Amino acid sequence: MDLKETEISSQQIFQGRILDLSVRTIKLPNGETATREVIKHSPASGVIAINDEQKMLLVKQWREPIKQLTLEIPAGLIDPTDASPLDAMKRELNEEGGYKADYWEKVSEFYSSPGFCDEKMYLFYCDTLTKLTDKRSLDADEFLTSDWYSLDELKNLLAEGTIVDAKTIYAITVWENMLLSGRQSDDK
Amino acid sequence: MDLKETEISSQQIFQGRILDLSVRTIKLPNGETATREVIKHSPASGVIAINDEQKMLLVKQWREPIKQLTLEIPAGLIDPTDASPLDAMKRELNEEGGYKADYWEKVSEFYSSPGFCDEKMYLFYCDTLTKLTDKRSLDADEFLTSDWYSLDELKNLLAEGTIVDAKTIYAITVWENMLLSGRQSDDK
């Protein structure tokens, strides 16, 4: 079965700072037409940052769409001035945590909710961290704190429903998986 | 540090079929004001469905926001007529796969991208599946096929970049983790 849909027209509804909204008319595989509400959103990077005590870095911040404080892995939109998703992540780890890391690897890349939005996230792993003395400033409208959590603490936070962010829940599962597989820092 | 932000006003830009967009003016922790572009989106359910051959069910469909075919776990928006997220998932497993399952458990719930959107997803695990003879119809604008994949096949699809959907990548990691932890069907 040919599942492809074809765009016939697109009406832009809104062009914002971090997202655009349009309503697209498409041709379905059976020849009928339908509409799709589509968000275009800047791509982002996130990181599983593990320190020498085998703890993961999370940041606490207010999320207006769900009107609650969240615990999330360090992450941020990729700026036009960032040379790459990894470069963006190194900048964010500095801004949000005040750290640099000597070991980096790519974990995965994915679309956060491709049914309505093109937001793409690049997820990295890093360790061998050093606290920076010359931490970069956060954005003017960005307020957050950061702290370290062991896997047991993270599992408790998950079980009690304190961690509610998809990429962070995925990141914890990836890290647990690395530990279960017997992946150690000296395997690198 | 108090990180809470307070909504001062909200301007609705668009009210659609699956999402609404508004621009909110908020008061930051330091007393300054800023704006936030906020999407309200219906909640959804998704499922890790494993058959007796230890294969996972994925559906293939066209995703207009990223203009490509994706492989994703069965999932769908929770309808007002669904009694619960689990009830919605049972309906979707019937519509998208044509199956019913005798064993169900809740895996987690999360917001897909809480920085700009309130879309919440409820993730379930199920096994002990039976093919239905009275499969429900898909929505009129929904076209998809479904198939079964072993963990090795899924890892290859991940490695080659064929699977790009966040909840599906997370679901595969959860399932791998269950297998690594020695979780067997007879542990239930």
Automatic annotation (TrEMBL), chains A, B:
Keyword annotations of the record: Hydrolase
Keyword Hydrolase: yes
Organism: Lactobacillus kefiranofaciens
Highest taxon of source: Bacteria
Lineage: Bacteria, Bacillati, Bacillota, Bacilli, Lactobacillales
InterPro entries listed in its UniProt record: NUDIX_hydrolase-like_dom_sf, NUDIX_hydrolase_dom
Pfam family, one: NUDIX
Transport in keyword set: no
Protein name, entry field: ADP-ribose pyrophosphatase
One cellular component (GO) term of this entry: cytosol
The enzyme's E.C. designation: 3.6.-.-
Cofactor(s) required, per the database record: Mg(2+)
BP GO terms, sorted: nucleoside phosphate metabolic process; ribose phosphate metabolic process
Nudix hydrolase domain sequence ranges: 40-171
Molecular functions per Gene Ontology: hydrolase activity
